[in-house]
From TrEMBL:
Name listed for the protein in its UniProt record: Transposase
Top-level taxon of the source organism: Bacteria
Probable transposase IS891/IS1136/IS1341 domain residues: 1-114
InterPro entries documented for this protein: Cas12f1-like_TNB, RNA-guided_DNA_endo/Transpos, Transposase
Lineage, opening ranks: Bacteria, Bacillati, Bacillota, Bacilli, Lactobacillales
UniProt family annotation: In the N-terminal section; belongs to the transposase 2 family.
Any Pfam family the entry gives: Cas12f1-like_TNB
Span of domain Cas12f1-like TNB: 127-193
UniProt keywords, alphabetically: DNA recombination, DNA-binding, Transposition
Length: 204
């Protein structure tokens, strides 16, 4: 699991964290701004009417401009959520169909410092959904899902097992000082995660 690439597989394939909802997010933001403004206007109006003795000012829910903005925000929120969900369904379906054993890292300990807050929040949310989808789809298809501790998986060479020490997050590629092989940080980590899972499966 990653932030820029949402899923990185041990066979080298990567699935991007797509912000394909950018256009929709813009529309949503447009309506959110309007919603806030219209809400304030309506509240002011209600206050004004109360102050001047109108016994029964109409409730907020009867301000049609406000309600329209509210509906638009809800509409765009739903569209964005649906697009994201569709994408995650596609990824997980492919993963489960193509593999008999899927090993993923336990993300509780994942170190994501240094990443942009928003992309981290999106990735976080997507990982949770991804894991859930993998869990039930593996069950449906009779496939095995293992979750392993990612400890040291981004520093050990998946080729020879040499422990090269901690790599800072900005080091995306490195050469193993022992066997000399060139590594993509994320793909190497995913190979290590697979190896951990295979070990676990054998011990059981
Ligand atoms: Zn090596």
């Amino acid at each position: 699991m990653g932030v820029c690439d949402l899923v990185i597989c041990s066979d080298g394939s990567k699935y991007k964290t797509i912000r394909f909802d950018k256009k929709l997010a813009k529309r949503k933001h447009y309506w959110e701004k309007r919603l806030a403004r219209r809400r304030n206007q309506a509240l002011k109006d209600i206050q004004y009417k109360k102050k001047f003795g109108l016994i029964d000012p109409k409730p907020l829910e009867q301000y049609s401009n406000y309600m329209k903005a509210k509906l638009m925000v809800a509409k765009y929120s739903e569209k964005i959520a649906n697009q994201r969900k569709d994408y995650l369904h596609k990824i997980t379906r492919k993963l489960v169909e193509d593999n008999d054993l899927i090993v993923i890292e336990d993300l509780k300990t994942k170190n994501l410092l240094g990443n942009h807050k928003l992309s981290r929040a999106i990735a976080n949310q997507s990982w949770r959904v991804l894991r859930l989808m993998l869990e039930y789809k593996c069950e449906w298809y009779g496939k095995k899902l293992l979750i392993v501790n990612p400890f040291k998986t981004s520093q050990i060479c998946s080729n020879c097992g040499y422990d090269d020490g901690k790599h800072e997050l900005d080091i995306r590629e490195w050469d193993c000082p022992s066997c000399g092989i060139h590594h993509d940080r994320d793909i190497n980590a995913s190979k290590n995660i697979l190896n951990k899972g295979l070990e676990q499966a054998l011990v059981k």
